[in-house]
User: Fold Uricase from Aramus guarauna.
Amino acid sequence: YGKNTIKFLRLHREGKKHFVKEVEVCTHLRLTSAQEYLDGNNSLVIPTDTIKNIVLVLAKKNGIPTLEQFAIDICKHFMTTFCQVAYVKTYVQEVPWQRLHENGVPHVHSFICVPDGIRFCEAEQCRNGPLVVFAGIKDLKLMKTTQSGFEGFYKNEHTTLPERKDRILCGELFCKWSYGECKDFDFDCIWNKIRECILEAFSGPPDCGEYSPSYQKTVNSIQMLILSKVSQVQVIDVVLNNTFYNVVDMKNLGLTNDKEVLVPVEAPYGSCTCTLGRK
Amino acid sequence: YGKNTIKFLRLHREGKKHFVKEVEVCTHLRLTSAQEYLDGNNSLVIPTDTIKNIVLVLAKKNGIPTLEQFAIDICKHFMTTFCQVAYVKTYVQEVPWQRLHENGVPHVHSFICVPDGIRFCEAEQCRNGPLVVFAGIKDLKLMKTTQSGFEGFYKNEHTTLPERKDRILCGELFCKWSYGECKDFDFDCIWNKIRECILEAFSGPPDCGEYSPSYQKTVNSIQMLILSKVSQVQVIDVVLNNTFYNVVDMKNLGLTNDKEVLVPVEAPYGSCTCTLGRK
Amino acid sequence: YGKNTIKFLRLHREGKKHFVKEVEVCTHLRLTSAQEYLDGNNSLVIPTDTIKNIVLVLAKKNGIPTLEQFAIDICKHFMTTFCQVAYVKTYVQEVPWQRLHENGVPHVHSFICVPDGIRFCEAEQCRNGPLVVFAGIKDLKLMKTTQSGFEGFYKNEHTTLPERKDRILCGELFCKWSYGECKDFDFDCIWNKIRECILEAFSGPPDCGEYSPSYQKTVNSIQMLILSKVSQVQVIDVVLNNTFYNVVDMKNLGLTNDKEVLVPVEAPYGSCTCTLGRK
Amino acid sequence: YGKNTIKFLRLHREGKKHFVKEVEVCTHLRLTSAQEYLDGNNSLVIPTDTIKNIVLVLAKKNGIPTLEQFAIDICKHFMTTFCQVAYVKTYVQEVPWQRLHENGVPHVHSFICVPDGIRFCEAEQCRNGPLVVFAGIKDLKLMKTTQSGFEGFYKNEHTTLPERKDRILCGELFCKWSYGECKDFDFDCIWNKIRECILEAFSGPPDCGEYSPSYQKTVNSIQMLILSKVSQVQVIDVVLNNTFYNVVDMKNLGLTNDKEVLVPVEAPYGSCTCTLGRK
Assistant:
């Protein structure tokens, strides 16, 4: 049980310059007891309202140096304060505020919301177990308009899909990785590096791209690049939900449509999930 | 990988009387191969477009006798047809069309959408493993305006919640159960019986209700009643996401508010999850 | 300017029997002044926080006898209390709680949310003008599986739609009507009567239905029936957003699909709007 | 009546360099006839399916030089082709794809979705009337963490809001303007200029900002700046839906909270709308 979508803004001021971190936190606990379920005895139950208070108090006291550190702080607090807590998990998601710029000059206290991929993290701990940290990006929508195909697949009497050498690849990416044993990582720096890896593996070199023979291969390329470039990452989950773009048949309208007008097919949509770790 | 939100309507006609079943299907596969991820070799990959075709063809051929039977049919088809499939999972969710009635007379072909709890089911199978079936209800919103409190909970310096003997209990229920070894069950009849159990355990006798000392106890009561009344159910997951109703303090507006005007607090919201099975 | 989505629950108790009305209110004002826009002089500005307080206070004092009466109360309060208000508009929308029944017995204090069409109303007044009241229903999803076609339409070189004598008609209805000069109407009774008119005009007789040659004609039938049966209604707006159901072509899958499996096309969707009043 | 959410991607290629414009189009018509409503006579009705075809054909033939030009093309086509069309309106909204950059180098065919304010436009024409063009931006979320207050407002017994000299101003902006008589404008350039005006008027100079005494004044400042800097704009509508950030009272948790931890209040929310034109 726990509290979901604890939303708040942490404002930090250095003179006239302001820094904001707006987050949404979910914290869940499992207690050692079962009497609250069986007998309605609440004596060990930490109210979800108290959970919320603790999250806000920690934000006030420690600030949010990084999402990950904040999630770690919350887990540690519950484990050390309450002996009836058997397990704690905290999810933290960021509202993507970016500092405004006017003609290249950063503004001291104005921000704009730019949701081009949402950063999140998760920390969890069982009593007597290690504190495990995950981080990730979600709702990242990417498209490449060529250098993608799908050929040589398995066919039987239910196959109607034609082979394609040149299609649009468009999808929403979810990517979550674990840090294994948690040390003093520079979580912000790693997160940015991984985001760059995703964009690079998805799109290939800027002047020509790189051919994707399937969603599966693209997912794997993303994972391989991250594992090779970011040593702190142990395991990576990637989910690619793809929107297919259908080339509109304009023959009966007297026109030839050379992949100029395409219609997105939002339902049903394909999905490809893969988990990859180090040996 | 697989295909999500395959939406379609299955229309069945008996003379002038029409029967509709509109569903949303997600079917996911895991293959025995990894070459599509590593080498871009698609020779064993069943396109998600083919998955969609198969779902539609099975709906055409077999109809949708029950959601559960349809999910079972899909899983069996993939397991028996494709030897490269290591695992298959199918989720089926119903669009809640109900037959229209005019002055008590059922209409032969008109329907209204009544989303008071969405029915869904899931079937999954590993190669050489049993076919397992789950069913459930989600998005079921219930409220009781008394016979609910929360007292005697754990307190420390971060506790600000007052004890309450009479509060509103309002929540959205998710309930999913497994049928263990799958036999010839009357899935429709069981589903309706379980829905009744949920409503009964949540609200208590119609003339007086039954006191709930916590969300946890209410969740447990629902599970206990289902296990006692429906022998086919093996394990039950319940999630209760609750909306707290705050009694508006009207003292500074010169009024006494005796729980007459309450404001829902939608974020953050508490959540209580429990899994209960038979011994 | 004003306050939107003021959500609250009004609880009314008669002994052990409880009655709930949960609503969402939006109240907007236009002031006689412009100085708040031009000079930042707020001396006549009623804060939106005060607007919220007033809505809650009126709910506490008067209750919500009907949505319409509550909207009228709010408008009257602003007009009579603040001479700087030039115009006031209030929208009230209901959360569709229904009393739970167990084996036909109504429960004294338990409710279920059944969103099969949302009731709303609107009241507005200019200073020195009449108080005008509107009411309506929205998000009402209806379907008929036959007795609908579309033939004889205008054709040119951009027409690819075939004529159809037997298609599925499925849509989401929005219906809003005005009451003209506002008297002591029984708003609950009228609303229910109009809802019945909509269902009847949409679906026709329960044993055979009635043929719809177009969305336009169906919209008009709904309006005509309401105007003929409900004398208090002066003008009616209807919007019918329709979802087309595409019969899946299964020829290349070796099957004949006699309107048994159909796929909803949710985007793009057609829309048909009509306003009809009395002479 | 008409067709809504006609979604498509227009792909334009110059050698290896690709350009994308993904849009969502709604086109509505009013016919000179009423017989389709009254008699079910469809002879003058242009099917919404044909409307969709025409939109796609025009995209294929003309491309989408600017959203505005495309909306104009559609309106002109309907007016000149169909004499039964009395009125036509077209709304075009853009999916905010931006070209990907790797280390500052633009990619030839990869794009990322960056929804920091959605661009849209509208064109409409009555038969024998002028073609009128509107453009706008919506879903633009901005925040300033100081230089905002609200004081000196009207007070009575329902006022509980304290005066504030330093609060957070956070809101979602909707801004729509008309171009009056439509000439050969550089719509892309104007749109970007107006977006800059909005950001500048909202936030003030980058080193210190500018004090906002109310939402009303901020809305007016945005409008005044646009009218003064962009001569082509005739009238501007601005809607500012604001999210209030509540400073968490931590006294009973033994802490002083100097506007460091704030909680967004998403419902109810204030709204401020203003229309401003030239004399």
Observations:
- DSSP finds five helices and ten strands in chain B.
- Chain B touches chain C through 63 residues (CB under 8 Å).
- The mean pLDDT of chain B is 96.
